[in-house]
Design brief:
About 30% of the residues lie in helices and about 25% in strands. The protein has seven helices and 15 strands. A six-stranded antiparallel β-sheet has the order 6-7-8-14-13-10. α2 runs antiparallel to α5.
């Protein structure tokens, strides 16, 4: 057990109790992060939802359906050898010669929730690497996406929120195929990123199961992941989804 006396932790027994146990918000939770609370998913959730055992937010945690659905989407997503996965969460599909469809990586779109508006920045023909091409607005805020390659815009396709989340193509472009080799996401990299996200989501789901439900007395049930972890943490999570070399 860990007891708190003047902010000093006293350890007894075989484990270290989470410091949130003293608030009665959670029960029987051992700390497995050596009190590195800043990087603990449970601490992020509780700080978002509670303050002095009272809700800060307007949301109530009733179940884990909202996060289970995201986990299921990620588990059902597989690497498609017909697609070319690029940095900055883009994918392209070759039609013929140097003509490609352009879209967003499904590992990203699986996590995008409650999109209100998609803004495109394709008001010219030629785009260079690292240039912003679109932004996505939701109740949680805004994230922007840059191109990882130089390309020539041939046509704009589906920019609707429904189209983006359904992994529809957003543009028809022309690419010098020599540029693709330095920006490719391999099957192994795809699997590593998918596993990383799944492990993160499952950690947050376990956090939900640790929270004492007697504190759930708010008006609105949590229906989205961003409502659980807070807008800032949600945006950080989206921005961290990318290929690492």
């Amino acid at each position: 057990m860990v007891t708190m006396s003047q902010n000093i932790y006293e350890v007894s027994g075989s484990g270290l109790d989470c410091i949130w146990i003293g608030s009665n918000i959670i029960e029987d939770k051992l700390c497995n992060r050596k009190f590195d609370c800043e990087n603990c998913p449970l601490d992020k959730v509780l700080k978002n939802l509670f303050s002095d055992s009272n809700y800060k937010s307007n949301y109530e945690l009733q179940d884990t359906v909202f996060i289970d659905n995201i986990i299921n989407r990620f588990e059902e997503t597989s690497f498609d050898p017909k697609l070319i996965y690029l940095r900055n969460n883009l994918v392209v599909k070759n039609i013929y010669a140097n003509i490609f469809y352009l879209g967003l990586n499904p590992l990203l779109t699986n996590l995008l929730e409650n999109i209100i508006h998609v803004k495109e920045y394709m008001r010219k023909v030629y785009f260079v690497k690292d240039e912003k091409i679109l932004s996505v607005d939701g109740e949680w805020g805004t994230v922007a996406f840059q191109s990882s390659i130089n390309f020539l815009l041939l046509d704009k396709l589906d920019w609707s929120p429904e189209g983006v989340t359904a992994n529809k193509w957003i543009a028809l472009i022309a690419i010098n195929q020599n540029e693709l080799s330095d920006n490719l996401m391999s099957h192994n990299q795809f699997h590593i990123q998918q596993t990383k996200i799944l492990n993160m989501l499952k950690e947050y789901r376990d956090c939900c199961l640790s929270i004492n439900k007697e504190f759930n007395n708010n008006k609105e049930k949590i229906r989205y992941f961003y409502q659980l972890i807070g807008n800032d943490e949600y945006i950080n999570t989206i921005n961290n989804i990318n290929i690492e070399s």
